Amino acid sequence: MLTLIYILFSVALLLLIFELFIYSALNKLFRFKKIEKIELKISVIVAAKNESANIPNLISALINQNYSKDNFEVIIVDDNSTDETFSITKETIKELENFRTIKAENKLFKGKRGALDIGIKSAKHPYILITDADCEPGKEWINSFADGFGDKNDFLFGIAPYRATKSISNLVARFENLRANIIVFAFAKLGIPYSASARSFGFSKEAFNNIKGYTYTTETLSGDDDLLLREATKNKLNIGIVTNSDAFVFSKTKEVFSEYVNQKSRHTSTSIHYSLKNQLLLGSWHLLNLVSLFSIIFLTFGTEFIFPLFIKLVIDLFILNNFQNNFGCKINPLWFIVLQISYELNLIYFFIKGLKFSNRWE
Fold it and tell me: What is the pTM of this model?
């Protein structure tokens, strides 16, 4: 019994140390930084498959960028859509000189990365930004990434929140996006970048070519962004972060929970292709959280066994509440305990499901 107490209290201590590092990193990350106006030549690449309902909103958001249209172009790559994506895109941009649309023909890679690869090769400019067709980038999105490239970063990624609706599926998705981002951005600030959102991602074309583009990222159809980041880290390239709230890239969540589960399973499955160091680090982090969560099952042996769970929930509540606005999220803290417990359990489910999930570019 005494050994079990030592183990659980050691877990609580290690978790507390982890959380202190995370809190410190986020504090440094979100210190005010003035965005410098640097006009670099940038190409925005979007892969679109059956996005006829969403593409006009994306185009509108890109038209409204606070950036000279002479210094950026937009290439929308239609990836064999079966709806009117291509015709709607073509009609919408017909009078926009810095916009064009092409079809994804003779792809070298399967799925979305094949369409992106075609767009990148067609790009005129030395810097590339990527987002999804169902997204709405903030007006300072391109400007903020240009500033990051001006700081000599080879790769950059930004914050991509979900818009709020009243559905439970949306609440779960927004919380899990917030929880994941807290770890992703804190670890990146600590010099351990391992994940990024393709909804707000960028790199220099030179750096992309130096790591042979998508050549070494084909283990899975999903996770092209994470695996590119892995290759960039392997090659010791500079990886930066964009945190400006006017550069948030908003998108909608899946409103049907089963669709959200499938989406998360695809994304979670990419983690088995992370570097060994990152797998061990993340595995340790999640194990500490799970052991702390399940420490409650020993409560019948004594009230002291609730201590690891208490530490976990209190610190989680503090960090989530302090930084949720920085990640473009607003959730009533009263939901945090329930959502945090479901998050830890969902991670296991998503990972197991992801191992046997049939990846597909929809």
Answer: 0.90
